[in-house]
Amino acid sequence: MAAPRTLYARVGALILIGAALAVGFVLFLTSARLGEGATVLETYLSESVTGLDVGAAVRFRGVAVGRVTALRLAAAEYERPAESSFNAAFRRVVVRFAIDPTAVGQSAPSLEEAVRLGLRVRLASQGITGVNYIEMDFVDPARFPPNPFPWTPKNPVVPAMPSTVAQVQSAAEQILTRIEQAPIDNILRDAGAITSSVRAQLTDGDLAQTLHEVLATMKTLRDTIVAADLPGAVADLRGVATDTRALIGGAEVRATLANTAAAAADLRQAIARLPAAIAGVEQAVRTIRSTASDTQADIGPVLRELRATVSNLRDTTEQIRRAPSQAIWGAPPPPPTNRDRR
C-alpha cells in the first residue's frame, strides 16, 4: 500500500510543480505588460502576421519600448460604410501596441511630428525561430507614404511599411511577372538566328576569310622573324651598347665635359661683364652725340662766312669777265657812305 501512495504523491507533486511553472510563465509574460501610463497606438499591416502574437515586443532599433496588445482583422474591427466597396483597406490586419513613455523619453517629438519625419512600423523576424515582433524606425517618408483608410481609428495611427521579407517577395514577384510577360519565343528565335549567322560567318563568310588572312599574316611574320636573325641583331645591339658605355666612360669624353664646363663658366663671366660693357658703349654714344652737337654749332658761322665769300668771289669773277680792263686800270671804288657804314 505504501508504494501506490508514494506514486500518487509523486504524480501530485509533479502536477503541482507543472501548474506552478505555468503560473510563473504566465506571470512572467504578464509582468512585462505596461501600466496605465502607456500610450496605445495602432497600425495596419497588409501582409501575413504569422509568428506575431499578443505580448510580442515592440522595438525601436532593437530597444524594447512596448508590447503588442491586440491583433484583429480590419473588417472585424471597423464597420464598412454601406456606400463603399470592400477595398484593400479592409483586408489589412489591425495591430495595437502599447508604448512605455519612460522607454521613449521626454525629449521625443510628438507622434504627429514623428510620423511627418518618417516614423514607420514594420513586421520583423527574430531569426530562424519564426517569432516576429514590431519594429519602429525612421525612413524616407516620400518612399513609404501613409496608406489611406476609410474609417475613424480608435487610437493614434503609426503608418506601416512592408517588411524586408515582403519587399524581397514583391521584387521577386515583379521579376517573375516581367519574365512571364517577356516574348521568350521571339528571343529564342532571334538567338537561334544570331547563332546561325555567326556559324555561317565562321564557316564561309567575311569573318572566316579575315581569320584566314590573320593566320597567313602571323605565319609570314613568324617566317620574317626567323629569317631576320633576331639573335644576331640582339647581339649587335648589345655590342653597340657596350661600346657606347665605354665611350661615355672614356677619358676623352670626361675631358670634353670638363672643357665644356670651363667654357660655360667663362661664358657666365662674360655675360656677367656684359651689362658694364653695354653701359660703357651707351656713355660713348652719348659723348659722341654731344661732341657732334658742339661741332655743328661751331661750323655753322664758318659755313655762313664761307658762303658769303663764295658769293663775293662769284660777283668779282662776273665783273672781271664783263670788264677786265676796269679791274686792272679802273679807278678805285668810291669810299663807303654813312649808309654803307651802317
> Which stretches of 5+ consecutive residues score pLDDT under 50?
none
User: How many beta-strand segments?
Assistant: 6
Tell me the span between the first and last alpha carbons: 192 Å
Shape: elongated
Determine the fraction of residues in helical runs and give it as a percent range: 55-70%
What does this structure look like?
By secondary structure, the protein is of the alpha+beta class. Helix content is 60%, strand content 13%. Among the domains are: 33-163, no CATH class; 185-227. The chain is built from eleven helices and six strands. A six-stranded mixed β-sheet has the order 1-4-3-2-6-5. It is elongated, with a radius of gyration of 61 Å. 10% of the residues are buried. The mean pLDDT is 79. InterPro entries: Mce/MlaD. Residues 318-342 are annotated as: Disordered. This is Paraquat-inducible protein B.
Keywords:
6 strands, alpha+beta, 6-stranded mixed sheet, single chain, 11 helices, 13% strand, 60% helix
Which secondary structure elements does this structure contain, and how are they paired or packed?
Blueprint: H1 2-31, E1 39-45, E2 57-60, E3 63-73, H2 74-77, E4 93-99, H3 101-104, H4 111-117, E5 119-125, E6 132-138, H5 164-181, H6 184-203, H7 206-227, H8 230-248, H9 251-322, H10 324-329, H11 338-341
